[in-house]
Design goal:
This protein is an all-alpha fold. The protein is built from 12 helices and no strands.
């Protein structure tokens, strides 16, 4: 238990200088305004505001991708150097190892559950479905990108007999909309940080907000360069605004550890969804018919 981290303060200086920049609005207010603006822009015919927001989005994307993301590792390294100097790093790393082991076990449970559902739907051994997806798993772990896994995922679907019109629709949509592994990892990071800072986790409101933040930070940031870092910043800003300086580097570190298996869950989830969609569109014995047609 690392509950003492919120109280610990390194004896080193905080920095050579500090530039105060108060936020214009809170994170949740910004997310709600973004949602309302995005919904409104799809309904109006005037392109003036659309072009202005598009240009502003391009500016932010270039700033994040070209300046913030390259410099972010140095900030994280500095935070951990201060934690090391303060003598809390061993306690923190012990917690990291424990949470990583728990995350791996939970990922295995999720995979088995997903393929049990898919195997039941297709009347096929779930472990043979898992074996068929091994190339997609290695691609997901190596690239940490759901988009890069689409071609390998598509080959797995074609080889098993999923209709091409189903996989052509489900896999690209699932790459940006069905981020179950990312949502799951976000939930785990939030729960871990609650334990680190000794905050009570017994409120239905906190749990509901956690689900909303997990969906927004994983699905909403899936196509943004460095979107995982932005999602973790949103998560920490909502739940740990007073401990942001310590919570954010911890979240980034956990994110780097769990992103590969999370991407694997994302790819597996899309694969399983193709089975469910094929069951509803092609009928009860769709896989058997697809195999007979191949022969």
């Amino acid at each position: 238990d690392a509950t003492g981290l919120s109280e610990s303060k390194p004896t080193t200086d905080d920095g050579l200088f500090t530039i105060e920049m108060p936020p214009i609005m809170g994170v949740m207010e910004a997310l709600l305004i973004s949602f309302i603006l995005g919904l409104g822009l799809t309904l109006i015919k005037n392109d003036t505001l659309k072009l202005a927001i598009k240009d502003f989005s391009e500016i932010v994307t270039k700033l994040v991708g070209g300046v913030v993301i390259p410099l972010l590792p140095f900030h994280v390294y500095g935070i951990f150097a201060k934690l090391t100097y303060a003598g809390t790093i061993v306690e923190l790393m012990t917690s990291f190892i424990k949470v990583f082991a728990v995350i791996l076990c939970l990922h295995v449970i999720i995979l088995v559950f997903q393929y049990t559902v898919a195997g039941t739907t297709a009347k096929k051994n779930p472990f043979s479905l898992i074996k068929n997806m091994i190339p997609a798993y290695t691609t997901a772990i190596g690239t940490q990108s759901s988009a890069a896994t689409i071609p390998v995922n598509k080959e797995a679907c074609d080889s098993i007999g999923v209709p091409k019109d189903v996989s052509d629709l489900v896999l690209p949509m699932g790459c940006t909309m069905h981020m179950d592994g990312s949502c799951f990892s976000c939930i785990l990071k939030i729960v871990f940080l609650f334990g680190v800072f000794g905050k009570p986790f017994d409120s239905i409101g906190d749990m509901a907000l956690m689900v909303i933040v997990a969906v927004l930070s994983s699905v909403g940031m899936s196509g943004v360069p460095g979107g995982g870092y932005i999602g973790e910043f949103i998560m920490c800003s909502v739940f740990f605004p007073d401990q942001l300086a310590i919570a954010y580097p911890i979240a980034v570190t956990i994110g780097n550890l769990v992103d590969p298996p999370a991407t694997m869950i994302n790819a597996a989830g899309d694969y399983v969804v193709t089975f469910l969609v094929a069951r509803f569109t092609e009928g009860k014995d769709w896989l058997e018919r697809a195999r007979q047609e191949k022969k």
